[in-house]
Design goal:
Radius of gyration: 14 Å
Oligomer: single chain
Number of helices: 3
Strand content: 15-25%
Order of helices and strands: EHEHH
Number of strands: 2
Shape: globular
Length: 74
C-alpha cells in the first residue's frame, strides 16, 4: 500500500467504521501515505429494496458506477 500513489477501497456496505477507514488511519501515520478513496454506501438508510445487483447499481457500486466514480476522483 505504501508504494502506491492512490488506493481505492471498494466495500459493499457502509463506509462508516469500515475496512477503508481503518486502513486510512493506519497509513495516515506514514509521511508517504497514498491518497485513499473509499467507495461504498454512505452512512444513510437505504430507502429502496431490491436484489444485490439492483442495490449495487443504485449505490453506484456496479462496474459502470465504479468506473464513473473513479474517473470523477481522478
Amino acid at each position: 500500500c505504501r508504494q502506491s500513489k492512490i488506493l481505492f477501497v471498494v466495500e459493499e456496505h457502509s463506509t462508516f467504521n469500515s475496512f477503508g477507514t481503518h486502513l486510512s488511519s493506519i497509513l495516515a501515520s506514514d509521511t508517504d501515505c497514498p491518497k485513499i478513496k473509499i467507495l461504498g454506501i454512505d452512512d444513510v438508510f437505504t430507502e429502496v429494496v431490491g436484489d444485490r445487483d439492483f442495490l449495487l447499481k443504485h449505490h453506484k457500486l456496479d462496474k459502470k458506477g465504479l468506473v464513473e466514480r473513479i474517473k470523477e476522483f481522478l
